[in-house]
Amino acid sequence: MSVEKGFTKENLDYYLKELAKEFRKRNGKNTPAAIVLVGGAAILANYGFREMTYDIDAVITASSTMKEAVNTVGDRLGLPNGWLNADFKNTSSYSPKLSQYSKYYRTYSNVLNIRTISAEYLVAMKLMSGRRYKKDLSDIIGILSEQERRGEPLSYRQIDCAVRNLYGGWRHYKRLPCLGMGNVMQMEAGKS
Hints:
With about 190 residues, this protein is α/β, with parallel strands linked by helices. It is about 50% helix and about 15% strand. The chain has seven helices and five strands. The chain has helices at about 10-25, 40-45, 65-75, 120-130, 135-150, 155-165, 175-190, and strands at about 35, 55-60, 85, 100-110, 110-115. It starts with 8 loop residues before the first helix and ends with a helix.
């Protein structure tokens, strides 16, 4: 099974399961690990509006053999180098508090605990990143829309709290994405 067109909800779970089996094989059943999915992978895990992502960005808390397990699974399944990575830690959307505000997703092989980022924190991260050439703004709209459809609409207060928790406030945000967010929140409020 090779990922030539990207990771989907279906193959994301398969690859994480395979990673857990390899990690357990290398470390035994008493050495747990945790991965917090962020960005596109968190959106795939939590929502249905996005079809794929091209890598899996994550906060990885594990023994040093996790990297070996990632590489082994990647080689065995024909995945690109860096298919699971923590590169986003070098971006403006990273916060050392992400794990603290993550939520449970799944556990594989009784050793690999997978967590994701909840809606308001994903919006906060996407706003902080604010890349027009990526899917940040469309992801924000998708999250807001899907939360509304689920009967769990996000309020400005929830997003503001997430921004304050992760980044200490709005002062670090880029001007245009924030203006876009204000317009989106006004449009969403008008629907109520």
